[in-house]
């Protein structure tokens, strides 16, 4: 029914527009998405794009189908302590995961192998199962601690992709800047798309 399964973690870093565009792109590409949305991410979502999503998981899942024009069970929102969900176990978790945007606090927890919530546990599963993990930090400047944590995860094979769009495609809007990064993320997830022009196109 779905082309593949993806875990999408969303933390409290600034950049809700990136996450919204990415989720829509995954839905449009017929991916099934396990959505791990932190409480702080919902606050940032309300602050940045004035969207107030339901806190109740059942209501949220119903809302997401309409919001993203998704199929039934195409987007599955999970709670931070849902330890019995597929993403919490190596025997059932998707082989690909993206955290967009990723706070440096979450980055630090992942680099130390902590599992205090489902986002951290899901990344731990991806790492131990040698899956594909893409993390997109949105912070500036990076402290030495931030950089050390990034190096730790990079040495483990994690793709570190700061949300830093280019300008050679001559963006005309914020959406164009966001799409530049979404296109790069989809490239690394090995998902076909025609979202943004490539170099020299």
Compact description:
With 201 residues, the chain is α/β, with parallel strands linked by helices.
Q: Per DSSP, what share of the residues sits in E-state strands of 2 or more residues? A: 15-25%
What is the strand tally? 6
What kind of assembly state do the chains in view correspond to?
single chain
Report the biggest beta sheet as strand number plus sense, adding barrel if it closes.
6 strands, parallel
SS-derived structural category: alpha/beta
* Total separate domains: 1
SSE run: EHEHHEEHHEHEH
Please give the CATH architecture.
3-Layer(aba) Sandwich
> So, the CATH homologous superfamily?
Flavin prenyltransferase-like
| Strand arrangement in the largest pleated sheet | 3-2-1-4-5-6
- What is the CA–CA distance across the termini? 33 Å
Q: Can you count the helices?
A: 7
CATH first level = Alpha Beta
Describe, in plain words, how this protein is organized in 3D.
- With 201 residues, this protein is an alpha/beta fold.
- Helix content is 40%, strand content 16%.
- It has a six-stranded parallel sheet with strand order 3-2-1-4-5-6, sandwiched between helices.
- The chain has a single domain (4-188), classed as 3-Layer(aba) Sandwich (Rossmann fold), CATH 3.40.50.
